Amino acid sequence: MFRNVTAIHLHLAGVFQRKKAGTSLARCLHQTFAMAKRLPARRLDGIDHNPWVEFGKMASEYDVVNLGQGFPDFPPPDFAVQAFQNALSSDFMLNQYTKAFGYPPLTKILASFFGKLLEQEIDPLKNVLVTVGAYGALFTAFQALVDEGDEVIIIEPFFDCYEPMTLMAGGRPVFVTLKPSPTQDGELDSASNWQLDPTELASKFTSRTKALILNTPNNPVGKVFSKAELELVASLCQQHDVICISDEVYQWLVYDGHQHVSIASLPGMWERTVTIGSAGKSFSATGWKVGWALGPDSLMKHLRTVHQNTVYHCPTQGQAAVAQSFQHEQLHFGQPSSYFVQLPQAVWRYRDHMVRSLQSVGLRPVVPQGSYFLIADISDFKSKMPDLPGDVDEPYDRRFVKWMIRNKQATSEALRPLCPLLFCEG
């Protein structure tokens, strides 16, 4: 208490010293105490750190390839590029506002396309919301459905925004971990070996549980949840009357014969699921920032309330381009000419190249079943270099990545895939 009084005294002394002629003492005091007020809202406490910002800055500073963020180094398909060009030049009204909850041709094609996949009659006006990317859909869902004190189950490793979005909504994150099964010597680890423990998962559900966030294919492990695993999650959500927020932005990036299953397609789950998708991930055009949320009107009406009082409306031309792209894809869906068939065939070659590159420098990669992320076990390096510079409270894997970026970027071409390496705490 006395330290605070002293600080105020010194601050006031500075006010008198800096007071300019013609400036009232009252004004100086007002400015002083105004600056002393707490500026950030308490909902931001503890969430100011963002790994993508930190590692993006380091990648620029040390001139290394940033492999952390999820966007491709190849162009969108020609039909999608042409659709965007059409949106820019064909109809001048596409330069103006459209419907707040989505450009009608887009909500209509999303309802038709995903209605068939989910085996639901989807109303484009009641069951579809177009957002500023999947990120916008996630934020809108958390703000609409998570209340002060609600618990949200998050499966880890997880996409980094789930925790801060829960906290900003006033919720409490509750974590349950995917646990890798041991592999035989010389055998590659697969994302399929990472499993939820049914007993542990069940123990996380309480009377305070409001929602569970599901991400399949998972970022960063690349796990594609099987139908049996989804049925377990669905059973617990129904038993405890819990909402499922299902982040499915990588649903088209599935490899090796695995199948993506939407949890909303399981019996009894449409009524309690918000399914989130991304045009950026679907058509390799992340800069378009067009996403969507699908779900029952009983949930979606609350998302619409948040949306209309925040962004209100998303850019029209991007929505028009995505609508045309989905119309094209619907004509080719399931055929060799389908982009959703061609995309994973192209990306799995990148995956296999990265797996070989990481193995060549002594790391043990976890081969993803889906998405375009890949993690690797650095235990062997840790045994050889247990002490690395950095904050002792910072996880070893983060310190390892920073050390690699600062010190190893020029060592050899073979090491470049490690700069930076995706990380998950463990």
UniProtKB/TrEMBL annotation:
It is found in: Cytoplasm, Cytosol. InterPro entries: Aminotransferase_I/II_large, Kynurenine-oxoglutarate_AT, PyrdxlP-dep_Trfase, PyrdxlP-dep_Trfase_major, PyrdxlP-dep_Trfase_small. Its cofactor is pyridoxal 5'-phosphate. Pfam families: Aminotran_1_2 (PF00155). Pathway: Amino-acid degradation; L-kynurenine degradation; kynurenate from L-kynurenine: step 1/2. CDD domains: AAT_like. Gene3D superfamilies: Aspartate Aminotransferase, domain 1, Type I PLP-dependent aspartate aminotransferase-like (Major domain). Its main location: cytoplasm. It comes from the Eukaryota. The keyword Membrane does not apply. Its EC number is 2.6.1.64, 2.6.1.7, 4.4.1.13. GO terms for molecular function: cysteine-S-conjugate beta-lyase activity; glutamine-phenylpyruvate transaminase activity; kynurenine-oxoglutarate transaminase activity; pyridoxal phosphate binding. Residues 63-379 form the Aminotransferase class I/classII large domain. It catalyses: L-kynurenine + 2-oxoglutarate = kynurenate + L-glutamate + H2O; an S-substituted L-cysteine + H2O = a thiol + pyruvate + NH4(+); 3-phenylpyruvate + L-glutamine = 2-oxoglutaramate + L-phenylalanine. Keywords: Aminotransferase, Cytoplasm, Lyase, Pyridoxal phosphate, Transferase. GO terms for cellular component: cytosol; mitochondrion. Belongs to the class-I pyridoxal-phosphate-dependent aminotransferase family. Homodimer. This is Kynurenine--oxoglutarate transaminase 1. It comes from Neomonachus schauinslandi (Hawaiian monk seal).
